[in-house]
Design a protein that fits this description.
The structure is a single chain. By secondary structure, this protein is mostly helical. It has 2 domains: 147 residues, Ferritin, core subunit, four-helix bundle (Ferritin, Up-down Bundle); 35 residues. Helices cover 58% and strands 8% of the residues. A hairpin with a 6-residue loop joins strand 1 and strand 2. It starts with 6 loop residues before the first helix and ends in a 21-residue tail after the last strand. Bound molecules: fe (ii) ion (2 copies).
């Protein structure tokens, strides 16, 4: 079967559209975080957005390499989430939800279809991207829980907090509200993930 005549070809186009949207949703989230002063958290989300850009680039590359032919247009019919509002905590929860859906349902199905249709390289791409999306899910679940419980900068035991701007370190249960060395606000204190 030629890639251009397969279901996998359409799935690649849907996936490209989905990754572009995921990237933009994370840019919305990053925008909100920067506005609220969560500088380090915004940088973490910026990195995830860049991952989604790279996933989009990889799907696009597969489409463009199909049967050495030019692809002018692909008609797709697909559904995408439009749940996000301008609420940071809720958007972290929804990000984890979208990543779960992508990993366990959508890309799992596309991976199986690619394998059935004989496109092993595309199936491997889906497998590898699913692994990343699962890491994104765990990251967003962690950030959501920390945000909801108010434990991003407040822990039950003492730990080291580091200012991302100047490198100043301090051991305490609570992160410093203002860096005593450079005056950066708490949003510049580096975050502890998965604890
Ligand atoms: Fe992705
Ligand atoms: Fe992702």
């Amino acid at each position: 079967m030629k890639l251009k005549e397969s279901k996998t070809f359409l799935n690649l186009a849907k996936s490209f559209a989905g990754e572009c949207q995921a990237m933009t949703r994370y840019r919305f989230l990053e925008y909100g975080l920067r506005k609220e002063g969560y500088k380090c958290l915004a940088e973490i989300v910026d990195n995830v957005a860049y991952n989604e850009f790279t996933h989009a680039r990889m799907f696009y590359t597969k489409i463009q390499s199909a049967d050495n032919a030019v692809t002018d247009n692909i008609d797709i019919c697909s559904g995408y989430p439009f749940k996000q509002k301008w609420d940071i905590t809720e958007n972290l929860r929804l990000a984890a939800e979208d990543e779960t859906n992508e990993t366990e349902r959508i890309y799992a199905e596309y991976e199986a279809t690619a394998r059935e249709e004989g496109f092993g390289d595309v199936a491997e791409l889906y497998k590898n991207i699913r692994q990343v999306e699962n890491c994104h899910r765990l990251l967003f679940e962690d950030l959501y829980n920390q945000m909801k419980r108010g434990t991003l900068y407040s822990k039950s035991v003492k730990q080291k907090w580091k200012c991302s701007a100047c490198g100043y370190e301090e051991e305490n249960k609570e992160a410093f509200a203002v860096c005593p060395l450079c005056g950066e606000k708490q949003g510049s204190v580096m975050l502890k993930l998965n604890d």
